[in-house]
Write a structure and sequence with these properties.
Helix content: 25-40%
CATH superfamily: Aldolase class I
CATH architecture: Alpha-Beta Barrel
CATH class: Alpha Beta
CATH topology: TIM Barrel
Structural class: alpha/beta
Distance between the termini: 7 Å
Largest sheet: 8 strands, parallel, barrel
Radius of gyration: 16 Å
Number of helices: 8
Number of domains: 1
Length: 219
């Protein structure tokens, strides 16, 4: 069964606490924290996501799945370490030098946090192969990062297929997460491609019944 990491990006601030509680009751496996710096992507969600992550830590024991869409990865890792997330994801495109990527991987792990690397839809899947033995998870973006409510880019499903095959052939334990435009209508194609975790935002948050939607996503 695929796990669900619910993106809280589109949660209304006035209803945040109630929504987080209802999402936990509905059966989400993780709370997905979409952190944007206004540079790597247009939006800046830093303050909102720090606030939401703090709220969640006070009312829930469910793990935080932090996704950094930022240029200054180290500074943002430091901002979220104190919230004890289950894992922190940073973008391969944000750090160009291999030694810097390895350094960040080690730094996150040294703080007792799982590490994940994300790639955008246009980044070649082969670019992440060298890092797979060192990370716990790979996040395949199925839309361009930075906006909620986008339509899933079909060609990204082939990337998931390809990386799943590579992981299996090399006996790696790297988990695959997909993020962007996922809903009950298209999630099966992603499951068949080999994902372990689906990040779902507006399809859950905008639904009339969180529990029903979660059930449809997981079945």
């Amino acid at each position: 069964m695929v796990e669900i990491s619910t993106s809280v990006l589109s949660v209304d601030e006035e209803k945040a606490i109630t929504t987080f509680y209802n999402l936990e009751v509905a059966g989400t496996d993780y709370f997905h924290i979409d952190v944007m710096d206004g540079k790597f992507v247009k939006k800046d969600t830093t303050k909102k996501m720090l606030k939401y992550a703090e709220y969640i830590k006070h009312i829930s024991n469910l793990p935080l799945d932090v996704h950094l869409m930022v240029e200054d990865v180290k500074a943002y890792v430091d901002s979220f370490i104190s919230l004890d997330p289950d894992r922190i994801t940073f973008h391969l495109e944000a750090i160009r030098k291999k030694e810097e990527i390895i350094k960040i991987i080690k730094y996150i792990k040294e703080n007792g946090i799982k590490v994940s690397i994300a790639i955008k839809p246009n980044t070649k899947i082969e670019e992440i192969y060298p890092y797979l033995p060192y990370i716990n998870m790979v996040l395949i973006m199925t839309v361009e990062p930075g906006e909620g409510g986008q339509v899933l880019i079909e060609s990204t499903i082939n990337k998931i297929n390809k990386i799943k095959q590579y992981i299996n052939e090399n006996n790696l334990e790297t988990v695959i997460e997909a993020d962007g435009g996922i809903n009950p209508e298209n999630i099966n194609s992603l499951k068949n491609a080999g994902i372990d975790i689906a990040v779902v935002g507006t399809a859950i948050i905008n639904s009339n019944n969180f529990k029903e939607t979660m059930k449809k996503l997981k079945k």
